[in-house]
């Protein structure tokens, strides 16, 4: 079931087009990452989805409802890049306040704080929290009321590596229950395994969309092969693979994705001469810089 539909979405500020005919569907349980340089239009797209600003063209539907309508608001949760709270209020008080606004029982506050790892700090003033802890308060408020759509603007900035992993585990749980997730991030390596699909914006235009496998297939970037030959056989192995470089005790070269099987057969034919080998496909970082350069 489609939770979010964007069709030919266009937004202009003072005559400058900052989003141009962007189309995207997100199904229940799908995790979609929005990628793009600073100023590419990611936050603008999110504000349109939330109904905070109006589009100049195109259509948005949140589970069939207009963005910003009472129903769409009730179905949507949002975590801004830097969540700001009154420093004199405790985490528990803040959550109780949000729960009241959302018409939910205030007794859920402690359970939500526990979920985001803030149980021990529930009675402390937010003014004493670190940036990562404040971000967790923001995440706890976004979890209120089992949202159907979750919109997260650079949610992991300011979180340490362990907190990031915990954060994505929470998103996985939500997605498994059917929440559609749209998040932006500049931390590409963490998105590879944690999102189902990526949408790349460049100066307001959608320049790529698909799974990591789709993006890899379209970009057809070379694979990097690293072979560890048996001691003293480095030069012999390097001669088998044209263009190969010997770096210390390893032999490295690249090959096109459609040559992979033929290269693996040639590696297998050398099995008596090698200890090990690795094949590295393009990372999301590689793909993103390829797509951005192509779009420039
Ligand atoms: N209220 C506004 N008035 C005029 N221009 C705006 C306004 N808000 C955003 N813009 C412009 O729209 C473009 C897209 O901005 P947006 O904040 O959506 O980018 P972004 O991809 O979220 O960037 P970042 O990664 O830096 O957060 C930028 O050129 C920005 O200057």
UniProtKB/TrEMBL annotation:
Keywords: ATP-binding, Nucleotide-binding, Transport
Signal sequence coordinates: none
All residue ranges annotated as the ABC transporter domain in the record: 4-228
InterPro entries membership: AAA+_ATPase, ABC_transporter-like_ATP-bd, ABC_transporter-like_CS, P-loop_NTPase
One Pfam family per UniProt: ABC_tran
GO molecular function: ATP binding
PROSITE patterns per the UniProt record, alphabetical: ABC_TRANSPORTER_1 (PS00211), ABC_TRANSPORTER_2 (PS50893)
Transmembrane segments: none
UniProt family annotation: Belongs to the ABC transporter superfamily.
Name recorded for this polypeptide: ABC transporter ATP-binding protein
């Amino acid at each position: 079931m489609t939770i979010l539909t964007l069709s030919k979405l266009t937004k202009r500020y003072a005559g400058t087009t900052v989003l141009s005919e962007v189309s995207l569907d997100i199904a229940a349980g799908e995790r979609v990452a929005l990628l793009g340089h600073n100023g590419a239009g990611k936050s603008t797209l999110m504000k349109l989805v939330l109904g905070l600003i109006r589009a100049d063209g195109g259509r948005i539907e949140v589970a069939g409802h207009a963005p910003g309508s009472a129903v769409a608001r009730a179905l949507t949760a949002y975590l801004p890049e830097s969540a700001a709270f009154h420093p004199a209020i405790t985490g528990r008080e803040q959550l109780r306040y949000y729960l009241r606004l959302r018409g939910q029982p205030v007794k859920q506050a402690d359970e939500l704080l526990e979920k985001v790892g803030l149980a021990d700090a529930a009675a402390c003033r937010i003014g004493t929290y670190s940036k990562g802890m404040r971000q967790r308060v923001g995440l706890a408020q976004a979890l209120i009321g089992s949202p159907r759509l979750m919109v997260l603007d650079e949610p992991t900035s300011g979180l340490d590596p362990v907190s990031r992993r915990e954060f994505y585990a929470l998103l996985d749980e939500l997605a498994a229950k059917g929440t559609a997730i749209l998040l932006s991030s500049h931390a590409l390596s963490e998105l590879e395994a944690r999102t189902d699909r990526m949408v790349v914006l460049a100066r307001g235009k959608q320049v790529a969309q698909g799974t990591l496998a789709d993006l890899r297939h379209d970009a057809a970037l070379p694979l990097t092969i690293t072979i560890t030959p048996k001691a003293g056989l480095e030069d012999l192995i390097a001669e088998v693979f044209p263009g190969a470089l010997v770096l210390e005790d390893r032999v490295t070269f690249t090959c096109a994705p459609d040559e992979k099987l033929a290269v693996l057969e040639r590696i297998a034919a050398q099995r008596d001469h090698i200890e090990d080998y690795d094949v590295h496909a393009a990372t999301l970082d590689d793909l993103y810089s390829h797509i951005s350069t192509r779009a420039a």
